Amino acid sequence: RAPLRLQLNYRDATGGNFLFEYSKNISRGGIFIETHHPLPKGSKIVVRFQPPGNESELEVEGEVVWVNPFVEGGENPNPGMGIQFMNMDEETRGVIASIVKAIAILPEG
User: Fold this and answer.
1) Could you read off the pLDDT of 17-28 as tens digits, one per residue?
2) Is 42 left (phi over 0), alpha (psi -120 to 50) or beta?
């Protein structure tokens, strides 16, 4: 996983409204979305985001594979949901792999 904070939007696969949130990190296989209102585990979603340095927006199907629920009172500093990417074409897979690789070699600080 590589740290990546960027604005994204997502909707459930049934075609509901897009919701705006932020990512916390990304890997070749998925992304963590920070939210106080995570979808249930097993939910199918579509995620859209514009990767840094990329001119076009990516749209990727995914599934909620784990949930870190919001706890009133701030006892959970990282509420959100882990999304596993699904059905990616080779171009999208390559873009995501490039993002992860680029972030992984950045100096800390």
Assistant:
1) 889 999 999 999
2) left
